[in-house]
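idk why but the lab printer keeps eating my pages so im just putting this in chat instead. protein + nickel (II) ion:
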Amino acid sequence: MIFVSRHEHFNAAHKLYNSNWSSEQNEAVFGPCANENWHGHNFELIVTVKGTPDPDTGFVVDLKKLSQLIRSKVTSRVDHKNLNLDVDFMKDKMASTENLAIEFWKILKVELPAISHNAKLHSIKLYETPRNFVEYFGD
Ligand code: NI
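predcted complex ->
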């Protein structure tokens, strides 16, 4: 089993705000991410798949195809968007990095077989800032 990763990038706006709480409580929990008039992050997305190399190509997955898949099915839907307002799969969810990674997983899990018969999705790693990131392994 070998692991193969592709790194993509997007930027997006969001706000972390729980409408059941007071402004003070939101600010205490979410800090600058609760800013009423939105703010942006430069997200770094690393998608890792696993499998055995195909005997004909030596590849687990064609990374060009994986890049195109991530861009067409995931990053194009969030890049330069407001995660709270513009993104259908984030509707009614907190626009956290955790929830984004889970939604990206769901999308790519379904789409991956279209580009590789022997690669399985292993993880989604999503950086919200250079120091803050989440990883999701599907459970
Ligand atoms: Ni934020």
